[in-house]
């Protein structure tokens, strides 16, 4: 009697961004039959038009900033003028070359990710997909998204379709003067005067980058301060830095409309005032790409904003359908999307999985200096009246020897811990490359280390990480 081969678990992933990529890769690694459907390219908008190119642009701006401020370290770049006296040269930024480089780099990253999926045995379909009930997907491979669909049955579906820039009817992007964060890479020259509407993370990052690249920048913020979702002390440092480098920060100013003029744009404010510039970047949030996917017909629960509701293992309201990334009601971070994608597959296939704890997520704002955070913070502690009492300690970076050596005068390390146990529960770092410095605190939060355990670790002297152990030691001392 012949043996029959057991059918492999069938997984269909809609979207090839960080969440979809990790889901597909994890599924293949665990032996499943995986198909991924992506219309733009593997990596999705995170790699092609968002995270990778924007952070590359910010890195270029950081290089320009370092050159401009090298004088305070004694580095002088002078050329002789006609009279023989030194003349400081002007830093020139070739934005067309910058954009060509970063888009090529994003494309190369997408190719690398595609190769990884191919080598893992994932079937890739270039096209658009939608649910046909909870156990099948209809895929259109036509460029126009026509009505001819292939039906792919699935034991598990992972939806990772991402999000798109939110557009206002009164400020429609045209790709030339009124721009979204997807369209800035088509600029051939640094904008003469860029008006950025929105002072959240995206708006603050681009405003900082373009001001450093040489644009006059006006940041229109409807809130009292920039980065309203961040630690107040950290946001104050960034706003002060924005003003120091010559940015015009307009607080409590809501943009009502943006119109194109003969030579630029005019932004009309809610109070009737106007701001004129050469270009306007709209950074007013994003909307999930969940419309037209057949979610509600399949019984998938959505929030009022259209985000897919998921639990801590990325499962939707229907057991065989999972979701990951910016289309869900979790944190809109690439790292969270990746973790959701992998967690979803591990849960679906019965592998060991730890539910995602959002309080353990490290996040970063790529301004100059950067803001990195993890765990509890002053706001969440104030809002949670039922938690134990916490203590905090802050070390200004201008007291750190390494910061002095490299010319850092602004920023700090802030630690949060439970008062009774001295367990580290959160941290904020404002510093150059804070994104690289937050990892020790992320480990401390994840593994519930005490301040004494953090303080007992050796750090290099001199180093910026020394400020972390200094803060931990100070919290031990305060307990005596």
Q: Topology of this structure?
A:
Layout: E1 10-14, H1 18-29, E2 33-38, H2 44-48, H3 51-68, E3 79-80, E4 86-87, H4 95-120, E5 123-126, E6 128-131, E7 136-140, E8 150-153, E9 156-159, E10 163-165, E11 178-179, E12 193-197, H5 201-213, E13 216-220, H6 232-244, E14 248-250, E15 255-260, E16 265-269, E17 274-277, E18 279-282, E19 286-288, E20 321-323, H7 334-348, E21 363-365, E22 370-375, H8 378-383, E23 390-396, H9 401-405, E24 412-418, E25 424-431, H10 434-437, H11 439-446, H12 451-455, H13 466-477
Parallel strand pairs: 1-2, 1-9, 2-5, 9-20, 11-18, 12-13, 12-18, 13-14
Antiparallel strand pairs: 3-4, 6-7, 7-8, 10-19, 15-16, 16-17, 21-22, 22-25, 23-24, 24-25
Point out poorly predicted stretches.
none
> In CATH terms, what is the architecture of the largest domain?
3-Layer(bba) Sandwich
User: How many individual domains?
Assistant: 3
- Look at the structure and name the CATH superfamily of the largest domain: FAD/NAD(P)-binding domain
**Gross geometry:** globular
What fraction strand?
Answer: 15-25%
**Biggest sheet strand line-up:** 5-2-1-9-20
The CATH topology label of the largest domain is FAD/NAD(P)-binding domain
- In percent, how helical is the residue content? 25-40%
- Please give the radius of gyration in angstroms: 25 Å
Mean pLDDT: 93
The main sheet comes to: 5 strands, parallel
Structure description:
This protein has 480 residues and is of the alpha/beta class. The chain has 3 domains: 178 residues, FAD/NAD(P)-binding domain; 107 residues, FAD/NAD(P)-binding domain (3-Layer(bba) Sandwich); 105 residues, FAD/NAD-linked reductase, C-terminal dimerisation domain (Enolase-like, domain 1). The chain contains 13 helices and 25 strands. The protein has a 5-stranded parallel β-sheet, covered by helices on one side. Helix 1 runs parallel beside helix 7, helix 3 packs across helix 4 and helix 3 crosses helix 5. The protein is globular and about 85 Å long. This is NAD(P)H dehydrogenase (quinone). Keywords: FAD, Flavoprotein, NAD, Nucleotide-binding, Oxidoreductase.
């Amino acid at each position: 009697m012949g043996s029959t081969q057991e059918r492999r678990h069938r997984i269909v992933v809609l979207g090839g961004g960080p969440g979809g990529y990790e889901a597909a890769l994890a599924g293949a690694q665990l032996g499943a039959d995986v198909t991924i459907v992506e219309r733009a390219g593997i990596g999705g908008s995170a790699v092609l038009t968002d995270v990778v190119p924007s952070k590359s642009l910010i890195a270029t701006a950081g290089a320009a900033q370092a050159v401009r401020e090298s004088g305070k370290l004694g580095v002088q770049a002078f050329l002789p003028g006609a009279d023989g006296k030194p003349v400081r040269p002007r830093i020139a930024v070739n934005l067309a070359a910058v954009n060509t480089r970063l888009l090529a780099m994003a494309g190369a990253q997408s190719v690398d990710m595609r190769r990884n999926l191919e080598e893992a045995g994932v079937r890739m379909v270039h096209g658009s997909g939608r649910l046909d009930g909870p156990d099948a997907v209809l895929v259109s491979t036509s460029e126009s998204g026509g009505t001819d669909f292939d039906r792919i049955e699935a034991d598990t579906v992972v939806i990772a379709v991402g999000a798109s820039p939110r557009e206002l009817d009164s400020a429609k992007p045209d790709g030339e003067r009124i721009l979204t964060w997807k369209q800035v890479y088509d600029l051939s020259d640094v904008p003469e005067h860029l008006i950025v509407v929105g002072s959240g993370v995206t708006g603050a990052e681009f405003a900082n980058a373009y001001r450093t690249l040489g644009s006059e920048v006006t940041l229109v913020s409807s809130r009292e301060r920039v980065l309203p979702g961040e630690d107040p002390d950290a946001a104050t440092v960034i706003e002060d830095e924005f003003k120091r480098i010559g940015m015009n920060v307009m607080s409590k100013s809501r943009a009502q409309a943006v119109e194109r003029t003969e030579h630029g744009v005019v932004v009309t404010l809610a109070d009737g005032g106007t701001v004129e510039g050469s270009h306007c970047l709209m950074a007013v949030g994003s909307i999930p790409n969940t419309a037209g996917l057949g979610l509600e017909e399949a019984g998938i629960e959505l929030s009022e904003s259209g985000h897919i509701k998921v639990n801590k293992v990325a499962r939707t309201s229907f057991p065989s359908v999972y979701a990951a990334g910016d289309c869900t009601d979790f944190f809109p971070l690439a790292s969270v999307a990746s973790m959701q994608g992998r967690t979803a597959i591990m849960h679906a296939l019965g592998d060991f999985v730890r539910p995602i704890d959002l309080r353990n997520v490290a996040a970063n704002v790529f301004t100059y200096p950067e803001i990195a955070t993890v765990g509890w913070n002053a706001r969440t502690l104030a809002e949670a009246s039922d938690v134990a009492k916490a203590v905090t300690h802050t070390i200004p970076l201008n007291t750190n020897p390494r910061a002095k050596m490299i010319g850092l005068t602004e920023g700090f390390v802030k630690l949060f811990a439970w008062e009774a146990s001295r367990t580290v529960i959160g941290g904020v770092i404002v510093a150059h490359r804070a994104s690289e410095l937050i990892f020790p605190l992320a480990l401390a939060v994840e593994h519930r280390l005490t301040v004494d355990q953090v303080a007992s670790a050796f750090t290099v002297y001199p180093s910026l990480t020394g400020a972390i152990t200094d803060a931990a030691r100070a919290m031990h001392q305060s307990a005596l």
